[in-house]
């Protein structure tokens, strides 16, 4: 399970990158994907801090909205929960009973559900389908075939 989650996080970023390459140049797309990734990570940290300090719901909603925008942080939180959740604390003398509490905002105090993982898979498929569709429309209407290729195609088709 952890290996699948480890592979899933770059796939989320790759799907956003593929869709971005249809409209944006290379540098602009890189800046957009990086900015979305930062928003996702900061939103996830705010959500974890809200869960850790029992802050009211607005902090948790910020994390949920950023997770819906780019769910890369959700995959990270689920991966941390999968890996650290099975480990026992090495030193009980410090009063640490849960390693997730010890990790603070870098841990996974509010663990993403299986439904969120399903959303991530649909998110990836939807972005890739949108990229293919937009690329097809762009090629069809904005990049016509050269005249010599069009006549060759028409002769072959008859």
Summed up, what is this model?
By secondary structure, the protein is mostly helical. The protein has seven helices and no strands.
Question: Any overview of this molecule?
Answer:
The protein has 158 residues and is an all-alpha fold. It is built from 7 helices and no strands. It has helices spanning 2-23, 26-52, 57-69, 72-84, 99-103, 114-142, 147-157. Helix 1 runs antiparallel to helix 4 (72-84).
Strand percentage, roughly? under 5%
- Please, how many helices? 7
How far the N terminus sits from the C terminus, by CA atoms, comes to 54 Å
Overall radius of gyration: 22 Å
List keywords for this structure.
single chain, 158 residues, mainly alpha, 7 helices, elongated
Strand and helix layout:
Elements: H1 2-23, H2 26-52, H3 57-69, H4 72-84, H5 99-103, H6 114-142, H7 147-157
